[in-house]
Amino acid sequence: MDPSLKEWTVFIDRCLEQRVRADRFEAASNQLHIKSPISGRKLSEALLRPRSSSANTVDPLIVVYLERLLALKRFDASDLLSQAFKWSRDYPPKTGDERVGPKDDQSRWRNPPELEEIIFNRLHKAFHSGERPQNPHEARETLTIVSRWMSAVATAHTSDSMIQEMTGLQQPQQQSINLREALGMLVVGLIENLRVIEILNNGRLKDVRKSFARSLSVFIPFLAQTSIPIANRLEISQKEHGLDDNTSNELNGGTGGNELDVAAIQLDAVMDLPIINTRAGLYIFINSLLVARPLTDDITIINYLHSRYKIDAQNLATDLITASFDVLSNAMYRSESSQTMFCLKSFLVNKIPTLLAQLQGSIYPMTSEFCITQALSHVDPNAFPAFSQGFDMTGGSNVLSDVRQDFLNACALHNLIPVNSIERLLGETPMQGPPEVKYVKNELLKQCKENFEKVNMFTDEIENLDGNGGAIVGAVTEFISHLCETQMTMYLKTICNLLSKKPQALDVMLQFTSPASILRPLCQFLDEWRYDGDQGEYQLVYDEFGAILLLILAFVHRYDLTYHDLGINHDSFISQLLERGHLSLPADELTDDQGKHLGGWLRGLFDANMAINDELMSSCRPQEFYLLVPTLFSQIVFACSADVLSLDAVKGGLEYLLETFLLPSLVGAITWMTSHALEQTHQDLDILMQIFHKLIRPASMSGDAQTMHTTILSILSRRLEKCLHTIRHRDPSRTDIDPLLEAIKDNLNYERLGYASISELEQWTSTPGNTLRSSLRNTIHSLVMWSSNGAIQLTPPGYTHRQLFTTLKLLGAHKTLRAIIEEAKVQAEAGNGSVALDVATALICAPSTENSPLQVHWVTSSIAQPSPPRTRLNLREMLKVELDAAVGFVLQDPLTAETIVRLHRRVEAQLAIAGTDTLPGTQLGLGVSVGVGVGVEAHSMPGIDLNIVDDAAAAAAVAGVGDMDQQALERGLERHLSLGNAASGLDLGPGGDVGDVGDLDLGGDMGMGMDGMGMGDDDDAWGLDFDNM
């Protein structure tokens, strides 16, 4: 035996014998791996080799160790499957070796089938989620071993069935059924994995594809005997990807290959339909920008518009304004919340004029007043009546009656129209005019530094709908960063308290800058927070720390931000708080310092002879306290349950936590309590409910504490509501729940997320026969009909981008895309092909906060937004998979194949331009000067763009389209402009100039080459960063 294999085998055997816990096993295995490196194949052999001749059950520790070693990347899926197959009862015996050997012959020992079933299920999840494969080698080897296993299972289990029939048993054993179903699901995960499909479609790996197709053709009929749903799913995927066994065709002259060649030629020859920029296209796009966390980056929007309109700036601006009004009227008709309405109004009034100002000052000719006039003639007059008509007989008013006036005032502020034209455009005398002063970011920042009181005024004005929002946001964002650099904690506390109580102000801020620009300086400031040697009152330290922390938590919970979104490291304080700030630690896992701190806080809260004093707070840093809060509350609840503490003593001690210097700790405390309350393994519920009442409905609080408490309840409202409703469902007789629900009623709907509510799901699926897929198709149909009759029908159809987001979440990219393709095909048959293609393209290209096909990097913000990790395929990537599969069914279903081809071309052409991080003028080397309102520094671009990973042919096609667009643009410029004088000062906001975009160092840290990614064979590398998927 190989020395390293022997050493690892002994090590694992001893760990299993001594029942070593997972964390200790991981630490010991890391040390051994440094001392004695071993290949993944040999390590998996040491772990999986049978340890007795008659093992009928699985040692659970083997599964635990397997998970840890997979997570540590000590071996991959192919290593694991290879060794599991070697010790499987289905492993085919060598020729002439069928005789029964002695029991002590370890080469004949076999693992129980349950272990294989567990491995199959674990790897199915990994391939289905996109966690694996991590390199082409793993994908190729996994396909090879799974091909062998499918054939072996079909052969071995068929033989077993024949023997059972001969002995009078008609049904296969349940364990055999479970095993083949688990293998079937693993194969499903493989076939539905984009990277595996790329390997199967690799022309240099025909043998791998042929072997897999042959085994699949044998396995599917065998699986159908006991598991029809899985077999049907495999059969659909087999047909989609052309994985039929073509052996018979090859024996008859190779007609199968010729058919595929003919099909490929037929797809290449598909004619494109005329390109139409529909009203629904931008309607969908703007909905997607604002449905959750704002994704309203200037460069993203302008490049997206350019990808659709090229140099037609007049229609671009007109349609942009119209779509923004459409989105707002749709929200009113859908009775969206007041916070949603405000967010959409702010985008229209504060953001759109700044975008128009950039376009007006760009290389493209545009008359702003004409565009605004045209757009206002297209909006729904019932949704946006004249101000004098916006009142009804009961004294109420239309919530949008002042929107046109506010928008026109903002346009006048940005010099898009003269002030005296507002009355003509409104059709009545305006109730008020534009602001007297157009704010400039640098001037505001200077005022803030000279006089802090100005910050209070500007912060209050963030929520004004007057067109000055962008400049204020830019100044406040940079001022926060300045305060962090200069460690002005008292001022930071004040500005954080001002912002955390204004959720609508947070929405406006994220419409103009990235979350990282605001929050990363604050997170780093908390990381570096240290006590000074001459520190005075420590309660003030906790007070300032808590105010900053609460603003970060308000952003995080409102927009569901991760530490990636904040632009911070995983080991930072905020990252650790988000990961485990709601988890209590068992006593045996507390460090000595944590044990001392916990005892100190318990004595300070509940010992009559003690108090929370400077000695306690000086010994326990705020970072340590907040991570200890869930453990503190678990000890309080358990002590009260065991009658160590009386309930009155607990309520008295908790008064400290209702003071501003400790109040933010309620976020972690109540989060832990809601989780513990739903557990049914204890008798603590009555105590928890008493504590809930004390913390949620305090008898009295100071004004500052009351404001902070309201923010905390907003942060926790959704979690509290779910918890309380669940408790009431379990025990309807409880009378202490309704007062709590009433107390948080006004704090609900705080989050700005893309998830649909239960009522929306019921609305989409309540009609008999309606499903999420059919509902999505109905929505697409209504958007196509509206776009076809936009000149007549001004009222937009009901739409929320939550529908697409939810369908993707619940059904996955494959089924969602099939619904889009099917409806586009139906509309093409009805003569609406071009319109349907534009609507479908808008849906597929729409940016998202998760797995977005269009990355929003905010490169003009003071801190660019990092690319979030990928978790699953998006619609663009799934469309590429569908395109690869279209060759297999173009002859049987040519219209569907043609729809897929046209849609793929349109999507790639649009994203080729929209997905860049420079403005169109800079792409052409025209030297456009950019003045960015939020402040620009040299940025390093986020790593590798995972969206640009198509095969060579698709990349070449997209490049061709891009070249055509560039040539057309240059010809248009020659007609309208002198290229030598094209540098026209493209103003990106209300701030000062930062020079030529071409001078910006956007290259930065681009050193994410293939060498450091573990990509395996260079010639097979896809260029994907799987570590961040």
UniProtKB/TrEMBL annotation:
Keyword Lipid metabolism: no
Pfam family, one: Med5
Location of the protein in the cell: Nucleus
GO biological process: regulation of transcription by RNA polymerase II
GO cellular component: mediator complex
Disordered: annotated span: 91-111
UniProt keyword terms in alphabetical order: Activator, Nucleus, Transcription, Transcription regulation
Gene Ontology MF annotations: transcription coregulator activity
Family that this chain belongs to: Belongs to the Mediator complex subunit 5 family.
Assembly behavior: Component of the Mediator complex.
Role description: Component of the Mediator complex, a coactivator involved in the regulated transcription of nearly all RNA polymerase II-dependent genes. Mediator functions as a bridge to convey information from gene-specific regulatory proteins to the basal RNA polymerase II transcription machinery. Mediator is recruited to promoters by direct interactions with regulatory proteins and serves as a scaffold for the assembly of a functional preinitiation complex with RNA polymerase II and the general transcription factors.
This protein's name: Mediator of RNA polymerase II transcription subunit 5
Organism of derivation: Lepidopterella palustris CBS 459.81
